[in-house]
């Protein structure tokens, strides 16, 4: 193989991969609009006054990422009507698929760069120890926060360390530790991945705020329970934080977290939930988590069962005639299956039935039979076998030998994807 042919094959391979994945991601993004509407509706109605269940329904977005290869898009009339145009555009205009992928990478780099800069900023902060826990101290008047999925770091403003009593600091520290223990930092990271992959759905960016609100409510509830403080005392602590940080930021003319009305409303909402605090049983929370995981895994398993595999055996048979100028297809796989069969070495043809089929369909020229092989998605990427039919034979069953084409590196990789 020449270098030019290798480069051409590489470009073709990347084009196929791009179209294959973008088709699926666009479908997933479209479905995510419906899922977001369902989650938003449930949060505002049935689950409005719950805490753990309201946060758990965000897990419905996980199965969305597995929906791109459902048979619904090809075998259901509604699915074909809604999604066929999108598939056709992706296959006909590869540049649009590359545009989708380019924006995906740009968005991913943007979010990653923000995280990288924040990590670098935190790494240069002063370290202190509180109750054997290392924290990073900032002079900026911001609310305490935690960063890092695998090596989490807790950041606290210096003004809080100087103004709060040790018990109050321990409560704030507990709040941040609970974020880490409950895996909230991982959830935020997974949500960013969801936003990146399905970036054409702007509702996901709006949902970020709602998602974080629900996570904070859980953390507040668990903190109250573990700290053994009264809900009133915990609410007072939040209000005190708001006053201190606001005063400090105004003193230095800075735009801190609590300056904007929006942030004030967030605190107000959190305090209302804290006021409504009712003791809960840990077993109830564990059961909710387990039930959520089972439901999500069950939905994913169900989606996999009604989706095409990584690659699919092609059992369709079709013939075409070539008269030197035009190619005429005769595609009636069910009828052809009754007169044509094959194994690893030969194609077996019922001569009389097949020639009647050709005569009925006015077949002209050389006749080719295409069968077997595999495909990724119906009508998209694959390989098949073929043979040439000669009508000279007088045997009742015509045996035609054929050879399976040797799969090249590109087809092998396509099977794996």
Written account of the structure:
- The protein has 417 residues and is α+β, with helices and mostly antiparallel strands.
- Among the domains are: 1-121 and 284-307, no CATH class; 312-416, no CATH class.
- The chain has 16 helices and twelve strands.
- The protein has helices spanning 3-44, 52-56, 61-64, 72-75, 77-92, 94-123, 158-163, 166-181, 184-197, 203-227, 231-251, 261-275, 282-305, 333-339, 351-360, 409-416; strands at residues 126-130, 133-138, 145-147, 153-157, 312-313, 317-322, 327-330, 340-342, 346-350, 366-377, 380-389, 397-401.
- Strands 5, 6, 7, 10 and 11 form a five-stranded antiparallel beta sheet that branches.
- Strand 6 and strand 7 form a beta hairpin.
- The radius of gyration is 31 Å and the shape is elongated.
- It starts with a helix and ends with a helix.
- Mean pLDDT is 85; it is low at 251-260.
């Amino acid at each position: 193989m020449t270098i030019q042919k290798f480069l051409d094959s590489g470009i073709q391979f990347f084009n196929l991969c791009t179209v294959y994945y973008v088709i699926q991601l666009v479908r997933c993004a479209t479905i995510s609009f419906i899922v977001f509407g369902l989650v938003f509706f449930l949060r505002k109605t049935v689950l409005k006054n719950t805490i753990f269940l309201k946060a758990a329904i965000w897990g419905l977005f996980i199965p969305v990422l597995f929906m791109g290869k459902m048979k619904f898009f090809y075998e259901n009339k509604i699915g074909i009507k809604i999604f066929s145009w999108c598939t056709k555009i992706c296959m006909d205009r590869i540049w649009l698929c590359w545009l989708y992928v380019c924006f995906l990478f740009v968005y991913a780099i943007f979010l990653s760069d923000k995280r990288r800069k924040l990590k670098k900023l935190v790494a240069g902060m002063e370290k202190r120890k509180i109750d054997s826990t290392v924290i990073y101290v900032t002079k900026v008047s911001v609310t305490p926060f935690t960063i890092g999925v695998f090596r989490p770091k807790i950041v606290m403003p210096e003004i809080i360390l100087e103004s709060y009593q040790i018990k109050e600091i321990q409560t704030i520290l507990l709040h941040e530790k609970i974020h880490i223990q409950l895996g909230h930092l991982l959830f935020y990271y997974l949500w960013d991945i969801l936003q990146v992959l399905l970036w054409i759905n702007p509702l996901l960016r709006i949902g970020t705020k709602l998602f974080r609100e629900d996570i904070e409510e859980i953390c507040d509830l668990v903190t109250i329970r573990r700290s053994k403080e009264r809900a009133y005392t915990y609410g007072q602590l939040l209000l005190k934080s708001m006053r201190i940080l606001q005063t400090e930021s105004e003193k230095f003319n800075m735009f801190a977290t609590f300056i904007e009305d929006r942030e004030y409303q967030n605190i107000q909402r959190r305090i209302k939930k804290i006021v409504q605090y009712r003791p809960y049983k840990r077993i109830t929370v564990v059961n909710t988590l387990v039930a959520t995981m089972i439901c999500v895994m069950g939905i994913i398993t169900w989606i996999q069962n009604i989706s095409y595999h990584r690659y699919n055996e092609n059992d369709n048979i079709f013939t075409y005639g070539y008269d030197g100028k035009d190619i005429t297809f005769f595609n009636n796989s069910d009828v052809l299956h009754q007169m044509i069969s094959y194994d690893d070495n030969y194609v077996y043809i019922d001569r009389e039935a097949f020639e009647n089929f050709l005569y009925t369909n006015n077949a002209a020229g050389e006749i080719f039979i295409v069968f077997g092989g595999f495909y990724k998605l119906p009508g998209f990427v694959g390989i098949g076998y073929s043979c040439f039919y000669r009508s000279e034979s007088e045997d009742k069953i015509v045996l035609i030998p054929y050879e399976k084409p040797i799969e090249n590196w590109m087809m092998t990789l396509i099977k794996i994807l």
